[in-house]
Amino acid sequence: MRMLSQSSVELISRVDVNEVEVIRLLGSGGFGSVFEAMHKNCKVAMKRFHTNTRNKKAAMQSFEAEVHHEVLSLKHPNIVRVLGTNAARSLEEQPFIIMEFVSSRNLQHVLDDADEKVDFKRRVTFAYEVALALEYVHDNNIAHLDLKPANVLIAPDGSCKLADFGCCQIIQERPNTPSRSYLTGTYAYRAPELLKGESPTFKADVFSLGICLWQFWTREIPYKLQNHQIVIFRVVACNLRPEIPEGNDVDNRYRELMTSSWNGNPEERPSMTEVVNLLKVLVTRNNGLVDKCEACGKESLCVPMLCPEAQSYLRLEETKRSFLALQPQRKNGTADPDRLTDQI
């Protein structure tokens, strides 16, 4: 995967508000509104931050998060691309950002539309594309921290694009980095450790994706009509999660991924790469492309998280790679794989 580089940062331009023609309102959130607009004869989306919000500090930090140079450098087919900003330093300067225009339709709209068919293949595809975006984000040391269907836009070709990085944080290598607790996403999707005020990690996004997996399956709003303060308490203290439907209309691996992703212990949740691996397998199966597992030989869809044989297989392969780096080189510059296997 492409990692961040300084050259990619230079592609971001500063935009003068007079160059932007607002066409129509697309939607509003807690800190700003999004408009369809034109910029130099190109259709774009413009997010303009509210200047009259009560929590000015939170609004400004949300803007700063979205225009952080590492966030601006993200470039992935499943992420909405930020094109420019006016680089405002205060709300009085009316901060805004310019993004690629995707559509006015998001994943929540799809789930709410009773006429829209969402079968197992489609819900797995939703999850896979969102997980790919998050894996890339995590590879660049960023946690999104506000994953929910409303923050996933649907492109004209039907693909998903992750949006709204206003709550994101750069994950530091050192532990106990102070977190902005008031910028950690919508409570129904928020990991319990964040609800307790702990510093965010990548595993917080995994938890949010687990809640989204449930929503893709049920098409219901999590904890609908329940008092949010009671929900927060019970998620933290009683391990409350959305009720899992009965029936066999979903693959067991999907169900297991969902429940492991929303595990109360962040260490017990899979990494986003493990999530991607499993969802890729499910997408492959639903496209009629079934491969045999290299580890156990079954015509199944084993992945390291769920298949013990695959875990052992990958450990052996990792050991081989480690030894490979230490082996005497052949004349052509490579180690002898036969000698390597014998030593292992």
Notable characteristics:
single chain; alpha+beta; Phosphorylase Kinase, domain 1; six-stranded mixed sheet; two-stranded antiparallel sheet; 12 helices; globular; disordered N terminus
Describe what you observe in this structure.
The protein has 344 residues and is α+β, with helices and mostly antiparallel strands. The chain folds into two domains: 17-100, Phosphorylase Kinase, domain 1 (2-Layer Sandwich); 107-287, Orthogonal Bundle (Transferase(Phosphotransferase), domain 1), CATH 1.10.510.10. The chain contains twelve helices and ten strands. The chain has helices at residues 6-9, 56-66, 69-72, 107-112, 120-139, 192-195, 203-218, 228-237, 252-261, 272-286, 308-324, 337-343, and strands at residues 13-14, 20-28, 32-39, 42-49, 82-85, 96-100, 142-143, 152-154, 160-162, 169-170. Strands 1-5-6-4-3-2 form a six-stranded mixed β-sheet. Strands 7-10 form a two-stranded antiparallel sheet. It is globular, with a radius of gyration of 22 Å. 37% of the residues are buried.
